[in-house]
């Protein structure tokens, strides 16, 4: 058994039990080791697809019915978010591509297909024709926020690529590509680092200014945003074959690798002042998934080695494989200035499992 098989075995042993224990929940984090539940408090919350998505990764690898049952419960709960549609924004990709999209691809469920296509229609409708980009958020506190784009959206557009393939309607893909090209132009900087938030003139698409978002400050380098860019451009290349998207994925990955030479597991912001230690394990495992796919697409083997290093270090130093704690990957962070500090977050577990699944060749679910 190689070291990744051994890590997988520990992960699966724990998740086979947590899948049953947290069956009625949509977890985001844990309190005193116990999963919280967003299904009652915030059904439109952007992370609500990761728990069912994680279940599908495990089902795909093991065929165990318990994972399927838990995933389906979550998907049914998520329907209520469609009725509260004003609470939804661009993150419907995370919410339904990883959950119902995976369900449909693995089981052929027609209900799951329809749900994922509803989400794709909702996302496509956020496209600003004149600006050429997908609007991130809805209005808040009197600010329409209609010109805002965020790097994270690179991970929502795979839903659109899928929808084009599924329906034969090229418009979803054209919207996704236009958004990816805007991201390349306005979010990716010359050195391969990225801006988290860009504000555009919504009528012309012209870039007005950038914001630091969840990072330290404007011009800094939020590591999870960097990871979304790596994995998002890698997937865009996988769906379109556009070399410029592959180059972008590699440039963003090269920057991430250069920033993590001393410690494979990233801090929350690569350009924050020295002194405050704030890990973001979630950024590491997201980036690892992107690097594995870059290598799988013909990039140098060094990308795979970098990913393996992240996964190994995360497993050894930051994972809890016991049943005393419902989450696996510890020490994520929401944002640099969040007063929550370090916490486990559900997408840390999702991308840790996805990275291992890719390394072990179980195949993609999304
Ligand atoms: N998409 C928001 C985040 O990465 O925290």
Question: How does the SSE layout of this entry go?
Answer:
Elements: H1 3-21, E1 30-31, E2 34-35, H2 38-41, H3 50-62, H4 65-83, H5 92-107, H6 110-124, E3 127-128, E4 133-134, E5 148-150, H7 158-167, H8 171-186, E6 197-200, E7 207-211, H9 223-240, H10 243-259, H11 281-296, H12 301-318, E8 332-333, E9 342-343, H13 346-359
Antiparallel strand pairs: 1-2, 3-4, 5-6, 6-7, 8-9
The structure holds glycine.
Glycine (GLY) is lined by residues 152, 214, 224.
Please characterize this protein's 3D structure.
The mean pLDDT is 97. The chain is 53% helix and 7% strand. The protein has a 3-stranded antiparallel sheet, with no helix packed on it. It has a two-stranded antiparallel ribbon with strand order 1-2. By secondary structure, it is mostly helical. The protein has helices at 3-21, 38-41, 50-62, 65-83, 92-107, 110-124, 158-167, 171-186, 223-240, 243-259, 281-296, 301-318, 346-359; strands at 30-31, 34-35, 127-128, 133-134, 148-150, 197-200, 207-211, 332-333, 342-343. The chain is built from 13 helices and 9 strands. Glycine binds at residues 152, 214, 224.
